[in-house]
Amino acid sequence: MSLSRLAPAKVNLYLHVARPDVRGYHPLRSLVVFADYGDEVRLRPGEGRLFIDGPFGQGLSTSEDNLVFKAVRRFEAATGIRVDRHDFYLTKNLPLASGVGGGSADAGAVLHLLRQACAPEVSDDVLSAMAAETGADGVMCLWAEASIAEGYGERLTPVTVPTLPAVLINPGIECPTPAVFKAYDAAGDFAPIETEWSGGNLIDYLQSTRSDLEPPAIRLTPVIGEVLVALRAHPETRFARMSGSGATCFALCDTVGDAEALAVKLRAEWPKAWVRACALS
Q1: H or E segment at 62?
Q2: Is pTM, for the whole model, over 0.90?
Q3: Is beta strand 50-53 parallel, antiparallel or unpaired with respect to 86-91?
Q4: Which residues does residue 147 pair with via DSSP β-bridges, in sequence order?
Q5: Which residues are catalytic?
Q6: How far apart are CA 118 and CA 81, in angstroms?
Q7: What tens digit of pLDDT does each residue of 159-214 get?
Q8: Most buried among 41, 89, 151, 230, using CB within 10 Å?
Q9: Cβ neighbour number for residue 3 with a 10 Å cutoff
Q10: Cα three-residue angle 144-129-246, rounded to 5 degrees
């Protein structure tokens, strides 16, 4: 039996981050959506190995430190089922350390495939508990549904958003999350994290929100700011922002045609960047 699943890119349409608590963790509030593009995960009969290919697969660990195996071990611990009769194949289409939840999405896809293949009786709540142990955005990337994420990212309230034609662009650099949070904390510019969307025009609403990790990420990696300037200079762009802790940025467009046209322009302007037209929902 061979099973496969998309591990879609996550995009933070806004990200409000509070000052760290006594444990050093940051409460947050974010509107997260997911692309119709991402990594691909497959499950096949085998011997418990991990194989990685794809444009961003080179050099990735196929050992226990990969989030795929972290998800596997959580599944085994929770169910008591050994899954070493399966091999895992990961096609890495998303840039690394890029703010779109690639590793967490991979882990979530693995959990779905293991439940389908080995333990269909496992409840959604139990699966969510496994995903929560793989990372702060593990639960949101497990379900990959438009949601308001609160707490530390684990409390999700599903929302309905229109399908958003978009372009994702990463300038070809990694932007490690711990360094961005450290720079954010050092600045000490903490604002209230609460905001409400009444269901009106989404792009108008987003203008009133923030991407709190964007300024520190730009300070650490100025090319992110250059990418945002380039996005906002094009008439196809209705709204542009950095996702998560960077360095991937996104532009929202009115139509699929506008998104595809913008992607063509960006590939010409940024030949070394990763650029992808997609739909967010």
Answers
A1: none
A2: yes
A3: parallel
A4: 32, 158
A5: 10, 137
A6: 8
A7: 999 999 999 999 998 898 999 999 999 999 999 998 877 778 999 999 999 999 99
A8: 41
A9: 15
A10: 45
